[in-house]
């Protein structure tokens, strides 16, 4: 095996700038890091590269990452996609494909979660807890010591402060809610069996 010359770094060293570039693209595009700029990436990773040449590389890698992420590619799809990219004119090298595959393996779950969170318009249910209490005060004596279900829900978006909603159900309201939930469950079951 030939030793690496000073002109050509060993494969692991040559892959580091591309790994950094892909991480920078993920930070800027999917993780909301506004400090990552084209200039920063070029200065830190490809300072010897001409600005126009770097822009072409950045656009190519950004396009590849976006294609992979939007399709949420599994390993077989990724391998086929990267193989096609290595064979097309102006595509990527097999070394670059290996770095991209490693990057996607490490970032797939986090990028997928980021895309899901970015696509939510409304708040979602983050947490729910409940308990049953006995009513100790009431305007009507008949309601004393009757069970009351208290449901606490945490609503919000990731990265934002949550809102808390507390709902109290007496036995009648709780039974009505359970009946409605049962009807919804039956409707969903009938729809899924029909298809």
Briefly summarize what is shown:
By secondary structure, this protein is of the alpha+beta class. Helices cover 57% and strands 14% of the residues.
Could you describe the 3D structure shown?
It is a single chain. This protein has about 200 residues and is of the alpha+beta class. The chain folds into two domains: about 110 residues, no CATH class; about 70 residues, no CATH class. The chain is about 55% helix and about 15% strand. The chain has six helices and three strands. The chain has a three-stranded antiparallel beta sheet. Strand 2 and strand 3 form a beta hairpin. Helix 1 crosses helix 3 and helix 3 packs across helix 5. The N terminus is likely disordered.
Q: Can you lay out the helices and strands and say which pair or pack?
A:
Blueprint: H1 11-29, H2 38-45, H3 51-71, H4 75-87, H5 94-119, E1 124-134, E2 147-156, E3 163-169, H6 171-194
Antiparallel strand pairs: 1-2, 2-3
What does the main sheet amount to? 3 strands, antiparallel
Separate helix tally:
6
Report the portion of residues in β strands. Answer: 5-15%
Query: Which percent bin holds the helix content?
Result: 55-70%
* Distance from first to last alpha carbon: 59 Å
Strand order of the largest sheet: 1-2-3
Average predicted confidence as pLDDT: 84
User: Which class do the helix and strand fractions yield?
Assistant: alpha+beta
Number of strands: 3
Domains (count):
2
* Mass-distribution shape: elongated
| Residue windows where pLDDT falls under 50 for at least 5 positions | 1-10
Query: Element order, helices and strands?
Result: HHHHHEEEH
Radius of gyration: 27 Å
């Amino acid at each position: 095996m030939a030793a690496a010359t000073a002109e050509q770094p060993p494969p692991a060293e040559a892959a580091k700038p591309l790994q950094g570039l892909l991480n920078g693209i993920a930070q800027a595009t999917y993780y909301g890091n506004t400090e990552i700029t084209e200039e920063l990436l070029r200065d830190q990773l490809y300072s010897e590269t001409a600005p126009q040449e770097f822009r072409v590389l950045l656009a190519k890698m950004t396009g590849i990452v976006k294609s992979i992420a939007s399709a949420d590619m599994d390993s077989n799809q990724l391998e086929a996609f990267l193989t096609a990219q290595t064979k097309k004119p102006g595509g990527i090298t097999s070394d670059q494909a290996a770095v991209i595959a490693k990057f996607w393996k490490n970032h797939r779950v986090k990028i997928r979660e980021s895309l899901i969170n970015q696509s939510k318009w409304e708040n979602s249910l983050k947490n729910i807890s409940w308990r049953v209490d006995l009513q100790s005060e009431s305007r009507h004596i008949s309601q004393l010591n009757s069970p009351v279900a208290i449901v606490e829900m945490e609503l919000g978006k990731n990265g934002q402060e949550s809102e808390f909603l507390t709902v109290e159900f007496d036995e009648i309201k709780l039974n009505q809610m359970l009946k409605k939930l049962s009807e919804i469950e039956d409707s969903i079951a009938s729809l899924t069996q029909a298809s």
